[in-house]
Amino acid sequence: MSGSGTWALVPLRQLAGGKERLAGVLPAAARCALVEAMAEDLVRALLELPLPSTQIVLVSEDPEVAGFALRLGVALFRPSPAVCDPLNAALAEAASRAAGSGAEAVLMIHADLPRASGPALRRLLAAHAASPSIPHATLVSDREGTGTNCLLLSPPLAIPLLFGPGSRARHVQACAEAGLPCRELTEPALAFDIDVPADLALLVHPGETQDNAPGERSQAWIHSYRRQAG
Q1: Sheet arrangement for strand 5-11
Q2: What pLDDT is recorded for position 210?
Q3: CATH code at position 186
């Protein structure tokens, strides 16, 4: 890793075997295809930002993700194995490596945001850059307001990482304890993630007033799903 400015870190544990909470409504092959489609749409949205592709980093130990990163032209970080809290351990290690390479800020963003877009991500970066305080944080929660879909930190190791159920409140509290300003940004395109069957239903049947269309690969997956569902 080398460079400066803002880095984007995308945890992607594996392409196959993910989204277990959708197992009751999607077979394994369809879940794998959905994970890959959403991840590719997110990476392509990140590539629209004024960031070098070397500073867009997939964080994974999975060899399939390594090939995926190579195909999309972005970087890969292989974290050390962690028995305890592997997601936060992997992201903390990646953020530390980015900081050591000159990163001034890191954007940690989940890969299951099918409506993420370049304009939405640019608004997030602009909102963060508008803060007069250093250090500071900018957070986008999920639709329920309980999880953290995006966390932008300046500097990269400004607070402990606390992703997982209920992480929004924990991240806000960590900022308060560290004396960091934390801006919470309302950005529907970045708040919509896919975890449970109700989320999938909203993705596949968004209704007539859909405000944020999914990315091209996710749209193709939806069309395929609808055809197979009859």
Answers
A1: 75-77, 56-59, 5-11, 103-109, 148-154, 136-141, 182-184
A2: 56
A3: 3.90.550.10
